[in-house]
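Protein 1 of 2
SEQ + STRUCT:
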Amino acid sequence: MSRAAVEVEDLLKVVLVLVVVWLALEIVGEVFDLFVGLLNLFPTVIGVLIVVLIVLWLLDRI
């Protein structure tokens, strides 16, 4: 078997593995972006909670 005698099935397997790795990296990237987006939302939620607590305190609801 010479060096250039690579079967088509072997090449398709290599391409399939590369596509699976690419898709897995895309999914991991999207999950990471979602997690970072949720972390960026936390300061806003904390600010709203503080405002609500202050308003409730001033209205003697706490």
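Protein 2 of 2
SEQ + STRUCT:
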Amino acid sequence: MDGVVRPLRVFVFYPSMNLRTWTVLLPGATKHVFQTEGTAIEFALTRASAMKGKGRAVEVLRERVSGGWVLVPF
């Protein structure tokens, strides 16, 4: 595994059953909460673009209602 650099990941969590807020988890365990999916995705993509601009590979993953993950292209 020498020389292999894993991408940074930004996670967008689907609201839990009792909550109606979307959570974005950035590298370093920084958590942000949003009222709408669109706002959460927009924030995640903006932050991912900024990290990518610094030369790191970045992935944005959004949780589905089923609990699976989907890669968000940007």
